[in-house]
Design brief:
By secondary structure, the chain is an alpha+beta fold. The protein has helices spanning 24-51, 59-64, 79-92, 94-114, 117-128, 147-150, 242-277, 289-318, 323-347, 359-371, 376-388; strands spanning 134-137, 154-158, 161-172, 179-186, 192-198, 204-208, 220-231, 279-280, 283-284. A hairpin with a 2-residue loop joins β2 (154-158) and β3 (161-172). It starts with 23 loop residues before the first helix and ends in a 7-residue tail after the last helix.
Length: 395
């Protein structure tokens, strides 16, 4: 097969040339993704973000790309490709990246890393091809950072199945899922288990969370589980403790590192575009020293973030990385994303608070990135524990 790859797909946002680590086939797949995003997705996002609605018209073009298992790359593409895939999605819109990641990373990895070989063989092809749509549900209304010890959703063994009761919150895309990976505590042994729950099973209710300032395109759901019956065959066989859940979270934090990097890329590109086109005092504002200082700071943040994200993916491709590795990258990149998007808003002046410059979306969405998949404080404590050998977590 002849592969035509863009010579420098990320030239504007990658001065150190990290994309050269991608193969020609990987760059060709990412080039096709960019074409679809520019043609079918980007023209819609501002209007749908403003209305807080999901643009279902983008699903078909994105699903048809077969990005989880492109023919050129096989069923298990490299972590580096998956990272750049997330960056490409997020530089267009963070909500679109979260929608895709909910299926491709959160839900799929819950099966790949938590399911038995038989469950993976049964379900993964359908997940890759979007015939089976799903989400991952861990966070609860009253438990986020303390969910390891405070998990309130319960699972009770009943004959050849389980009965699950509780609630989950902030579950992106739950309304449109076929299956929900629900993390619950076994009443018998107190250990954490994971179950594939039919979205339309009796006792499952999904309500949309309204009035959000970030991720407005994403349909975040509040899920109520009232005596929901699940067969043992739908219990993920390799999740038997919160340590097993942490294996899933480790990969999710790495994905969010790339998501945050992509948000910086989108904000930076929008800021450069605006400052070159906006004239004050007879010339583009990009020609003024203070504006250039801000643009240089943004590119520095983005380049450092990209380097950290790339190295994390390289470690995964080489055999894995630690919780502290993932926490360090997610925490550091998310913090600097806040600065980058704030500077993008700043150089756009008053126009930066409108959707027309694009930066307002990234500015608001950075707040969600900063919080989910581990708050800054939790990630700092994970790294601090690795540095000192002492846990500072409240017990």
């Amino acid at each position: 097969m002849t592969v035509t790859a863009p010579a420098r797909l990320y030239e504007a946002i990658d001065p150190y040339g990290y994309e050269s680590l991608l193969s020609a086939a990987e760059r060709a797949v990412l080039g096709r993704l960019r074409e679809v995003l520019e043609r079918d997705v980007k023209p819609l996002v501002n209007d749908y973000w403003d209305r807080a609605e999901f643009p279902h018209a983008i699903r078909g073009p994105l699903e048809a790309l077969d990005l989880m298992a492109p023919p050129e790359l096989g069923a298990a593409p490299s972590a580096l490709y998956r990272g750049f895939r997330m960056l490409e999605l997020a530089r267009t819109d963070v909500s679109v990246a979260v929608f895709y990641g909910a299926q491709a990373t959160l839900f799929r990895n819950s099966i790949l890393l938590g399911g038995s070989p038989g469950q993976v063989a049964e379900l993964d092809a359908g997940v890759r091809g979007w015939a089976i749509k799903g989400v991952f549900a861990l966070t609860e209304p009253d438990h986020g950072s303390d969910v390891a010890r405070g998990l309130a959703t319960t699972a009770r063994r009943d004959g050849d199945g389980w009965v699950i009761s509780g609630a989950k919150r902030w579950i992106g895309g739950a309304e449109y899922a076929d299956l929900i990976t629900v993390v619950a505590r076994d009443e018998a042994d107190g250990e954490v288990k994971a179950f594939l729950v039919d979205r339309h099973a009796p006792g499952v209710t999904v309500e949309q969370i309204p009035r959000k300032m970030a991720l407005r395109i994403v349909n975040n759901g509040h899920i109520t589980l009232d005596g929901v019956r699940v067969p043992e065959t739908r219990r993920l066989q390799r999740v038997n403790s919160f340590r097993d859940v942490n294996r899933l979270l480790r990969s999710m934090r790495a994905d969010v590192s790339w998501l945050a990097t992509g948000a910086q890329a989108g904000a930076y590109e929008a800021a450069v575009r605006y400052t070159l086109g906006r004239e004050q005092f007879g010339r583009p504002i990009a020609g003024y020293q203070l504006v250039q200082d801000k643009l240089a700071t943004m590119l520095g943040n983005l380049t450092a973030s990209l380097g950290m994200a790339v190295r994390l993916s390289q470690l995964e491709d080489a055999g894995g990385y630690s919780d502290a590795d993932a926490a360090l990258a997610k925490g550091w990149i998310a913090r600097h994303t806040r600065e980058t998007v704030a500077l993008a808003r700043e150089v756009c002046g008053g126009n930066g608070i409108t959707l027309d410059t694009d930066v307002a979306r990234f500015f608001a969405d950075a707040e969600a990135i900063y919080t989910f998949e581990g708050t800054n404080e939790i990630n700092q404590l994970v790294v601090g524990r690795a540095i000192t050998g002492l846990s500072a977590f409240v017990r």
